[in-house]
Amino acid sequence: MVLQPLGLWKVLGSRGRKVRVVREHYLREHVPCHSSLCQAGCDNDGKLLSEDVTHYVFPDVGVVVDYQEVLEFRELRGVVFTQTACSAVQHSKGRRQYNRLRNLLKDPRHDCVLFANEFQEYAYCSRAKGESQDIWHSRSVYSAAVWYHDHLVGVKPVVMITEDEAAVAMYSSLHSGIYIVSMQEYLLNFWPELQAAQDLYCSVSQALQEKESEGTEREYLEHLPSEVLEAGIKSGRYIQGTLNVNKHRAQNEAFVRLEGSSNKNTDLNSDVLLSGGKSRNRAVQGDMVVVELLQKSEWRGRATALSEGQGEDKLPESTQSQPMPTGRVVGILQRNWRDYVVTFPPKEETQSRSSRRILATPWDQRIPKIRISTQQAEALQDHRVVVRIDSWESTSLYPNGHSVRVLGRAGELETEVQTILIENGVTVLPFSEAQLREMPVNTPEKPWRADEAARRDLRESHLVFSVDPRGCEDVDDTLSVRTLPGGARLELGVHIADVTHFVREGSLTDLEARSRATTYYLADRRYDMLPAVLSADLCSLLGGVDRYAMSVLWELDAHTLVVHKVWYGRTLIRSSYQLYYEQAQALLNGEPVQVPELLQLEPEQRDAKLAQLTGALELLTHVARHLRAQRDLGGALELEGVEVRAQLDEDKNITALVPRQPLEVHETVAECMIHANHWVARKIQESFPQQSLLRHHPPPRQEYFCQLVDCAKAMGFTINTRSNKDLADSLDQAVDPKDPLVNRMLRVMATQAMSNALYVSTGSIPKDQCYHYGLALDRYTHFTSPIRRYADIVVHRLLTAAISLDRGSDPGQTLASNKDLGVTAEHINRKNQAAQRTQKLSTELFQCLYFKDKDPLTDPCCVADAVVYSIRTNGFLVFIPQYGLKGAVYVKNREGQVVSAGPDGTCEWQSGSVHRYPDRISTVCSTGTITFNLFQHITVRISVQPSRCHSDSLLLEVLSCQPHQRPDPVDLPGPQPQGRTHLVQEVVRLAEEASKQAQEKAAQGSRPSEEERDFYQTKWPNLYSLLEEVRELALMDPQACGGGPRLSGGAGCTSTA
Amino acid sequence: MAGLELLSDQGYRLDGRKATELRKVQARMGVFAQADGSAYIEQGNTKALAVVYGPHEMRGSRNRTLHDRAVINCQYSMATFSTAERKRRPHGDRKSTEMSLHLKQTFEAAVMTQLYPRSQIDIYVKVLQADGGNYSVCVNAATLAIIDAGIPMRDYVCACTVGFVDETPLADLCFAEESGSSLALALLPRGGQIALLQMDAQLHQDHLEALMDAAMTACKGVSKVLDEVVRRHLQEVSVLTGE
């Protein structure tokens, strides 16, 4: 053993009393240096510092603590963090920043390593008696730098950067190979081209200086020390939870969502209200806070009136609901600050008192204004800028921050899209060269060839085909079905692209895919999870070429369709037909269809092949019907049903209305995929009961169903929400023959009551709680779309390991533990939510852009039919089927006037009063009374409400309380029941025309057309994926709900006008 | 603010050891002349003294006498100055009594008591400084003391405390590491028999095997050190008594 123990005395406080703690400190001779230049044969594993840098840099403790984010630039290479610096970050900056540093060190894309200098026999220096901590830190870092330099026998110069001038003076002349410079000099001399880092440095250092010259006037109560908080939470005196600010009343109202475990107080099952800024006490949206409940007499209710979100109006008491638990923040356990996008105010608003400090308004309404000290205030006027919050002292009314980078002028398309991405924490840089170098090559000169070894070859034996939307390029699922010899058994096969063959665990591509976690679909563009060579070519199961696949093959009884045997494994397939949905449905219906794959063949041969294909499709449909029926018995919800699909489509893009009357073949394909997912989930859970990734959909909380039940009651239906089966049945019965929208709205409400479906690691939940409520399956996972979801890649790896475990061989690499997998699942969940929000916001952005070009008073597009679906105190919420929009309509405006009936059914503003009932709202004024009932059709005008700092929003006004009469009813199929197939075809035809029109229109449109054309994606995602997304959306929480499904990449705006 | 990081990403523990590394062990035998056997051991900052008297006639109540083997009597105590905050009672509290019992059980399994019927062996252990792994260090000290007393044993009894942090077993815990789940194992290393196994924390059963393996390896490491100590001691003694 090479250890050399060394006694080290430390004095630590514990329980208020000073206690002397003795701790050992072992030093060793061999501490890996993690440099690829190492001559001494260090035991270096993991990532290494590259050798093609000009120098290695050792940041001093102060630099790491204060300027960590500057060091996070990927361009800064060859950075060696000392252990001294890391532990200083851990102690002075807390867990969050420390974790960031840890991730930085782990991330292979950053060229930086940790050198454990404190355990190196010769690099370590013990703290001398009476030496101050800062001096000791600098000395340690310096001695580490010296050791490192000598260890590499001086081949690389070493630079130590420090902000401590005394250290510069003291050490700079001691050693010839080591240069000591300040941070600013370092950036200027070594990275002069990296302007962004210099700007960031300036803004951080300015913020630090400002912090020192802070006033003393106290604006907020001090937070309690953490021991007091911990003790208070344990004793039940305080409550711990996450702060959630009400978006519409950001100044006044915030809620604390309680953490399940910490809540001992069982009678407190709702959120805790924080009223006003003082009781929020410097907590920011998302922080983990500790609250103290106020006396019951001080409890207040939440405001129920719709607010227009401009300024704060003092609400009269009458608009508040029942008093609810109210509290105040006494401490913050964990800050959850991220990057914020803010808009700098125009010049006239800038305070003259301290011109260097600007109050910038964040794009997110829930975030307070942030005080930025900058000298560029004039240049940044009306620009969107990314900022970070540094601190929020009790003496300051607003938090202090510094700017990070400038996005561009507010209101420009590119700026706005970037804003949306940053606000949701989505970073998508183009794939780096190193990542692309990992990719296999497939060019006409150097075609990629499948290697047949160690795979089951299904090319000859199976008829494999895919069914996707027309023009789909990334085919990740194919199907096969056949009757086995003897006729007593069927064999159903699902073959999924074998992405894990190309994306090795831990490779750069894998890391990138993991950090993206999903492909992001925005209204006008998309960010792929995998590089195009994989997603559109080598992984895509195209027709007529050899491709690798992961297959699941079931042997079913030909009559009872009971599963007898399942085979999982890697295969080599060649898809024979790449069908699209309409084509497949036509084949099933026995209509004549052109199949391009068969055109070259002789007529007899063609007929035989066609018959074979049709037979397979029919068999598949038969099996899928059976599977569906079985799930229905278990209580599968039809939430993703016909109407919801269209409903959730918030874009004006009518292509997404296609699934409104889905073809049966959609269902067939989806059912096979669900089946495959389910069986894979079974397999991996049986093989790895503690560490497999499943998709968990917990049953919803009953109280969320209140709105649904009440609304249904108003229409005369009863909804039974006891189990998923009851709910599905009663939803099926709640149909108003006159208005199909009613059922649709009810289903939307049911959808909103659902909990989120989430990825979980099985080790972290009890075995019997993996039930998927929506699909009514005991286990479910995601396996079928590895090209665009990272969870599927994880599942593929698990399945591969399970297969090799069955064969008795070693699974190869060690699997992620339950804890690691839990972290991964958490990450994917977060990214998925971010992706959904991003998409929703970008859709809304495009809606606003669409309506911005139109004059609301004259353009017929701006007038639409709307359905009332929820009643509030001063207005109601409506849904506009034509555009898939949802929004608030006010019947009482700021001046206190109410909507009243005009002579010919139109509406105008007059003074009067509003009366609210559970199922209707009515206004009374001199000319008469108007009543708006639930589910009533009215006509609204849509206009854009511009906003400088935030995103624009749509404003809805009542035009008339009659259903909207469209000028040309053929344009959109009305709700009148028509022949089913006719309607489908009509919609499809219209959809295509409309999308073409829209593309043309957008191309010639008022917006910059070339830019626009660049963003167009000709690739459409596969429709199954669309459905799958919609299903997930259908299971989202109420706020997130209403987001559009993954739209086909087509036009951002499509109208039928 | 942040909790202590027991195992860093680079695989170092708080005091600079790797997961499987033991603390430095230093031991001396025959530290007292008047006792039959004695030993002093330092395992990192945990320091313990063990004294053995016997085998001798039964003292005190005779009804505890066993007719086929010797009775082992253990007493565990901690010096009042052994912990960061001064202890009130050096022995006789619940913890010490339990520890005495554990020691007794351990040595009943290792000492060849059947050679000394109707007699008694006393083992007194005192912890002078506590820094994790008290039980293990006491067992190791007592083993050396028994050898020093010349009482036949089946094998060395070597003990070690192991813990489980971040899915990794840590060998020979220090005080700061002991807060999590920890398992103490006393092993007769040559035959691999377990004299005592004790764990009072929650642990997933999947991890138990890994933890046991780590404990066994650590115990074998300890046994090597103890063996060296004994050999060195014998050499010194034989030099003194020989010529």
From TrEMBL, chain A:
GO biological process annotation, one example: nuclear-transcribed mRNA catabolic process
Which keywords label this protein? Cytoplasm, Exonuclease, Exosome, Hydrolase, Magnesium, Nuclease, RNA-binding
Q: Which intervals of the chain are annotated as region Disordered? A: 302-325
Its annotated compartments are:
Cytoplasm
Q: Which Pfam families match?
A: OB_Dis3 (PF17849), RNB (PF00773), Rrp44_CSD1 (PF17216), Rrp44_S1 (PF17215)
Name a single GO cellular component.
Answer: cytoplasmic exosome (RNase complex)
EC assignment: the record states 3.1.13.1
Q: Which InterPro entries match?
A: Dis3_CSD2, NA-bd_OB-fold, RNase_II/R, RNase_II/R_CS, RNR_Ribonuclease, Rrp44_CSD1, RRP44_S1
Residues in RNB domain copies:
455-805
Q: Which Gene3D superfamilies match?
A: 2.40.50.690, 2.40.50.700, 5'-nuclease (3.40.50.1010), Nucleic acid-binding proteins (2.40.50.140)
Family classification: Belongs to the RNR ribonuclease family.
Question: What is the designated name of this protein?
Answer: DIS3-like exonuclease 1
UniProtKB/TrEMBL annotation, chain B:
- Cellular component annotations (GO), alphabetically ordered: cytoplasmic exosome (RNase complex); nuclear exosome (RNase complex); nucleolus; nucleoplasm
Superkingdom field: Eukaryota
One Pfam family recorded for the sequence: RNase_PH
An example of a GO molecular function for this protein is: RNA binding
Q: Member of which family?
A: Belongs to the RNase PH family.
Where is each Exoribonuclease phosphorolytic domain found? 21-152, 155-217
Protein's GO biological process: nuclear mRNA surveillance; poly(A)-dependent snoRNA 3'-end processing; rRNA catabolic process; rRNA processing; U4 snRNA 3'-end processing
Name of the protein in question: Exosome component 4
Top-level taxonomy: Eukaryota, Metazoa, Chordata, Craniata, Vertebrata
Species assigned in the record: Gadus morhua (Atlantic cod)
Q: Which gene encodes it?
A: EXOSC4
